[in-house]
User: What shape does this take?
Amino acid sequence: HMTAGENILYAQRVRRRLRRDGSLLSSLVESLGIHHILERGVAHLSGGERQRVALARAIFSGSQVLILDEPLSSLHEGLRRELWFVLRDLAQTYRLALLVVTHDLEEAFFLGDEITILLGGRIRQQGEKADVLTKPQSVEVARFMGIRNLFAMENIAAQDDCLIGRCPGLQQILRIRKPTRQSDGSGPNVVKGQSYVGVRPEDVVLYRSHPPIETTNLFQGVVMANYETRRNATVLIQPQHSPLRLECSLPMHGVRSLELAQGDLIHFRLPEDKLFLLEDS
Assistant: This one.
């Protein structure tokens, strides 16, 4: 039966900190934009307002570490994204460490500096978010991250600063920039046998006609489908002489400028520095 303001103050009472820090409270109220709801009963708050009050209460308790378990999962996208910025600002302003549990990859990469991926109750990969995003260490992790462009690769051999191997699914020879170790010192095992190669859909480069410059990993394929979403378009390409489907993600203006239609013949490139080697799961 407490008001929002009483709910926030209750945090110090629970921790037996009876001194009320008025300046901290005022700062939190202003940062979270909740001044107008302090006298309102908690039962009459919206989902977003309740989350803001809960954040104020947690910080007002004096905690320097906040553990947030799916904190925004029940909110609509617009409010959820708004609170991403609020959380980042709060962490910086009050020097907080955030441990966020979420199934939303975009949320994880927005809020986190380091990412840990748990699958089946086990840590499958952890490290700086740039490493996790661009260098998944296994097929299982790559699939969890929504990467479907995963192909078996065999007869891998080193040549200068690249690795060269045959991709039976694409029926092509691929060149891959030699992988570097991640920030934690880990990386895929490169063996002279079968491994896997992957590429994120946004890293596939499309050309309406043959590019004027010589380049590697350039192939032809047929546009099988084009699916538009609010932010981008997903183009499915079937490489020539291959049963596989390659997924390519483009911004809306990009796909419109290419004027793609189902059945069109198109050139696509898999950049050497965007391909990554994977361990089988």
Notes: The chain has a mean pLDDT of 87. Residues 135-198 form one domain.
